Amino acid sequence: MNLMRMMYKTATLLVVVFAFVACDDEYSTVGGEIIENPSNLELEEVEVTAYSKKINSVQTNNLGNHLLGVFNHPIYGQTTASILSQVSLPTNNPTFGVEPELDSVVLTIPYFSTEGELDTDGNIEYVLDSIYGNTPIKISVQESNYYLNDLDPEADFQERQKYYSDQQDLFEQNLVGDVIYENDNFIPSPRAIVSYEENAEGQQDTITSGPALRVKLPVDYFQEKIIAKEGSSVLSNNNNFKNYLRGMFIKAEPTAEDGTMIFFNLQDSDAGIELFYTTEVETSTDNGGTETVRSPRNYQLNFGSTIVNTFEGEYPGDVLQAIEESNEDTGAEKLFLNGGEGTMTIVELFESEAQIEAFRENNWLINEANLSFYVDQDFASEINEPTRIYLYDLDNNRIIADYNFALNFVQDGNENNPATSLSSFSTPLERDEDGNGIRYKLNVTQHVNNIIENETENVRLGLAVTQNINITNNAAVRNTEDVEFYPVMGVVTPQGTVLHGNLSNDEEKRLKLRIYYTEIN
Length: 521
Fold this sequence. Notes:
Structural class: alpha+beta
Protein name: DUF4270 domain-containing protein
Organism: Salegentibacter mishustinae
InterPro entries: DUF4270
Signal peptide: 1-24
Keywords: Signal
Helix content: 10-25%
Number of helices: 10
Largest sheet: 11 strands, antiparallel
């Protein structure tokens, strides 16, 4: 690279992000068509190959957050998400006092929510986040006898054990005893949770916390399972306890065509199974004597470190057929993206090394390279589309250079907001005046420059929906040809869309690699 070219490239790198964002301001909609005019640079449109892959089985015990419920997607059909979780002791060898009597047992899993205004009675009103759908579902809770390993015995306990989204049948074969909770008409409520706690003066304080899935479990079951085992080996440490009470299976089932899907954090500090009981204590009387009274106590079992999401559901036949007919040699007319045990798109930018070499010989300074994915509004109109999509190095299971570049670009204090952060890498979905999705735009300037200038490998790129573009962890995939990893933030969203592919009948919206360049003499 000569000195002049190096100087041009260095200057361009300093402004490429700003140019990418600024280009969005230069789009205008006229008659439904998007007109581009990015800084009057030269434009080269490069044919790419893109096709869809159905993810048949994905690791779900490394998600952090989990889905529970039923969601009926207008395109991808009905999906049901259930959860199998370990239960753990907060302390080893718990003692419950003299003659403990269990009063109630409450399962609590907080929703993601935000505080709103005060109502007329002065109570905080909450708005639930990450709830998909609004019709009742059936949920049930039952003890599992399936042992969830933290570490993989086949890897000499040096690696974490992997559990997968398609293992529900196996888990259900290992359920024991009666169902301990069942609700055929469950729907999340935005109401605050109000409880009462006795203070040091013996008065009842009112405790208010955010909305949660909060249900009562049977006292007799936990009296026998936990309270009666005080002093035994099964409560002496968590290894023994996890083998004794191997887990709880929280199952969701549809009650109608639609349903409700909930995005949960089971490792929230308030999540768990809380036992409320009383025990005998000696207290002083006014005349200097003592008396025995019953004093309230509580003990909370936590959800363990191994929590597995399972998914059940089938795509409609025409959608599944279109995905299966995606051609890795020529690409596809439509690109399918869906979360959960979902569908991703594979993008190949250059067809051969000879094509890349031709670009090297052009002596171009690449100012910007991008991929614009247009929503197929004929196929995906009036759906709840994902706000963000995520592009990554599929072959090496890592972020691409443009993602890393965007990390260093602070965007008006929104760098941690999943809806707006890293927009210099991946723009949030553009919508028309009716709220329908138009397109997503991905910046691949640094990635393309690295291939052409630095001779880095022309890897396959993976495209997926994402719940949070700030999180880039990937989950292992099995039973899916040519795909080994899939973003965890794609697993934990039920949203999906359909995009125009490189063979789209609408030539204006076909997927292409657009390279804006300056010729260097």
